[in-house]
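Troubleshooting: if your tokenizer reports a length mismatch, compare your output against this known-good record of 271 residues.
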Amino acid sequence: MPSPSDPAVDTPVLLVQLSDSHLVAEADGAMFGLNTRQSLARVLGQVRMEQPRIDLLIATGDLSQDGTLASYQAFAQAAQAIAAPMRWLPGNHDEPAVMQQAAQGTRWLEPVVDIGAWRVTLLDSAISGSAAGYLADDQLQLLATSLGEAPHKHHLVCLHHHPVPIGSQWMEPIGLRNSPALFELLARFPQARGVLWGHVHQAIDRQAHGLRLLASPSTCIQFLPHSEDFALDDRAPGYRWLRLMPDGQIETGVSRLAGFAFTPDLDAAGY
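Known-good structure output:
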């Protein structure tokens, strides 16, 4: 299904990824003392300033912390300040049925987007009641169909949970539980170029399985990389941009808020 921006196949396309905004119904809702609506607004302001033309905006899960309709409406209102088509996928804190309600009449939850020389497929790795992720058979079939239908396209696959170890012991049990199934499927399709996820509240950029593997910061709090137990990083909120090239290469980087100072309140409501 073509994106409304429909760039030519011989030109790069620009994607912006937002992840793990953790909004709640209340406008003053906070995570470890950080107002998540305010931090999202600041990140979006930076996106508008740095990215004058965006072909697709992707939100890779945990848009909400409490799963309320008000939280999704707040996210949508904030993100629609970006003049670009938008797609969402659920994370472990999200409520898919409420997301559906919030997205009614839009294309925000459509899982496949053709854009320029690329196809982007968004998968639901959330398990109800669990922080860990799993790609059910219908999601693997969705991906296989998406890949098989478009052998002439380069493919980017998006999900919430990390499909590879990230070096943080406390996060390994809450990653994607059937990642071998994902990579075995992708290995059958040489047009697959990259996998993009959220959940880990930190930036990761690797090459493995013949793919570019990318994770991104949260628009609110950050997790300390390579930590044995849960720990917060003092890095600023941010977003990832991806320039998908006509030849299948991915140019990408992370942008964080400048001049951001935040001392977490570890006694306050957290993750």
